[in-house]
From TrEMBL:
Top class in the EC scheme: ligase
UniProt GO molecular function: ATP binding; phosphoribosylaminoimidazolesuccinocarboxamide synthase activity
Pfam families: SAICAR_synt
Protein name per its UniProtKB record: Phosphoribosylaminoimidazole-succinocarboxamide synthase
InterPro entries: SAICAR_synt/ADE2_N, SAICAR_synth, SAICAR_synthetase_CS
Sequence similarity: Belongs to the SAICAR synthetase family.
Pathway note: Purine metabolism; IMP biosynthesis via de novo pathway; 5-amino-1-(5-phospho-D-ribosyl)imidazole-4-carboxamide from 5-amino-1-(5-phospho-D-ribosyl)imidazole-4-carboxylate: step 1/2
Enzyme Commission designation: 6.3.2.6
Keyword Membrane in annotation: no
Recorded catalytic activity of this chain's protein: 5-amino-1-(5-phospho-D-ribosyl)imidazole-4-carboxylate + L-aspartate + ATP = (2S)-2-[5-amino-1-(5-phospho-beta-D-ribosyl)imidazole-4-carboxamido]succinate + ADP + phosphate + 2 H(+)
Stored SUPFAM superfamilies: SAICAR synthase-like
The entry's keywords: ATP-binding, Ligase, Nucleotide-binding, Purine biosynthesis
Amino acid sequence: MRDVYDLGDTLMIVSSDRISAFDYILPSGIPGKGELLTSMSRFWFDAIDSGEIGGRLSESGSPLAHHLISTDVPEVVANVVDPTPLQGRIMVTRKAEVVPFECVVRGYLEGSGWRAYQQSGEICGVRLPEGLRQCEQLESPIFTPSTKAEEGHDENVPFDVMVADLGNETAEQLRQMSLTIYEDAAKLASRQGVLIADTKFEFGWCDGRLILIDEVLTPDSSRFWAADEYKPGQAQRSFDKQFVREWLHASDWDRDSVPPPLPKEIVEKTTERYREGAKRLRGEW
């Protein structure tokens, strides 16, 4: 969860320790989460700047365009408030007109995709082969967009809905950008023994072109697994907030009321999972 401040020509996005699930902000935070997510986003943006991710998308050879300018506390902010609590938690970014869809890419069958497949054999209109198991790797990653609801829950929709709303050219560009970023990131992560099961990207219009915005490939926007533990046909140990989702699923919360506080044990284990995933990606595990 992030707080956004308008600095005039730019935005300052502050990552808090709050955590959300099923479109609710939970009453319990995850200590250090904001700093960890900011550092992970910076890790991926650096890979984009180097051309390791998304380089195939640029005909000119220049890096994929994104919104991040700096992760340093701006002087204009440091002059009026104590910058210490903000250090390691902020991104100064370009402004953009947000595309009203989340661009979800799935490389493995889990979560809402697994539930949809069990019911209909497809996800967001994408027909999948019969007999796939939970968490099984798909033959090729698939693009399954969802709406960005201002109120209520986001909704998974077929690609045709995105085309109807944005036009074929823009929708196709978003699909190709999302698939390419995912594929490149998955290769980078696999070298560190990490599988990216699925993720979601957000894009916006800036100076007449689509740029990547928001956090990127963090435990709050992606599902990470350890390659050496991967066993299709069952749920995997995740380095993301799936651990929290599973606890909420098992609780008696009805998902239409204020969520319950997380037990101390769940908070501590979630913190451990986040940190382990980050260390594995950086080759520190």
